[in-house]
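Protein fold
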Amino acid sequence: MTVHAFPTPDKNATLAVRYGGAVPRYTSYPTAPHFNGLVNGEVYAEWLATVGAGDKVSLYLHIPFCNELCWYCGCHTKIVRRYRPVAAYLETLLAEIDLVASKLGGRPEATCIHFGGGSPTILEPADWRRVLDRLRERFDVAEDAEIAVEIDPRTMTPEYIAALADAGVNRASIGVQEFDPDIQRRINRIQPFEVTAQVIAWLRDAGIDSINLDLMYGLPKQTLRHVEDMTARSLAFKASRIALFGYAHVPWMKTHQKLIRDEDLPGLDDRWRQAERAAEILLDAGYVRVGFDHFALPDDPIADIEPGSIGRNFQGYTADTAETLIGFGASAISSLRQGYAQNAASLPTYAEAVAEGHLPVRRGIELSEDDKLRRHVIERVMCDLSIDVGRICAEHGMPVDYLDGAFDALQPLVRDGLVTISDRLIQVTEAGRPLVRNVAAVFDAYLENGQGRHSSAI
């Protein structure tokens, strides 16, 4: 039996209090709170012109609609009762695809396509074919491209899933969150275990065998027993990947989260215990831990990959190696060599810009050489838990001691056995894995200026 390096309960509590404060998730660097209005459609067009034939890109399409509001949700979404606004949005999305493609310097190869939301499966089956056909018209979609869709299982039918498979979808991500009915009521997401099981069976019958599950800890009134049961029951699905997310309670950003009472939420110590117990169950079942919150079966691409090749973007950890991510839809963020560009979050503003023939970008950030270096360091430590800082500085044309000021901030983690440092080589220990965001944060030049508020590190 494999023995996993988890802190003792007493140390657990100490570490949770010491390091459990607000820290970015580092799906980008600089993080979104530091985007500004200097990046607009004209700047984005200049960046797109440098992407062309021979380049590999990932594509993200944001569908910002749901049938009902989940109270834990931190996404840009809107509740709709009719299909008319969704249909109108789809026409804008198709027009944006055409508009972006016209600005590219050539025809790049799309190696990964991801539909997120909201609930992308609010689209009617025929519209899946329209969107993917349009993408294939405008991009060279690789034959082995991963085409992934976030699914709301509560609205699925076997016919709908067959339509997804027919359109080329080959990976499905299913939001589970929790199986306990009482906790489901407390987050306004009623989804019986049997519903999830049935949808996974339909997916596999349709040939969609790559299944992701999203589980959550830190939910209202959730206990260690709940998390143990949730994680153990999820093993029955043999999902290729499992993302174990800590609930991010940010009611100052997402006002509907005020429906979840602060006093019902587990404390930092309880959150740590929940996360590490779930991890222990998954590791004992044969999953490989990827980064700090993803788990994969050994034959999944995200686990069966060369060291140093795992990436991290707005969807989390990925095996996709494309340098450019192009986002479509309201609030979608694109990541390019030059920086980040984010579309207008307001649906009317987004639609108006596209209707006028303008790229709907309203904010972003152009990367300085310092930003590019720190982005590289942060991504690698988040993905690999090991990094030679001096070597990366040299790769970016900087003195090897350029980031040495960050090492003093790591000393408390060294003393607590969470990090080791040899010369300029940083190694996050297994005990420190849950706190890798804290390690990344010491290289964040923007964090101290007080912009933005973030969720708990645990």
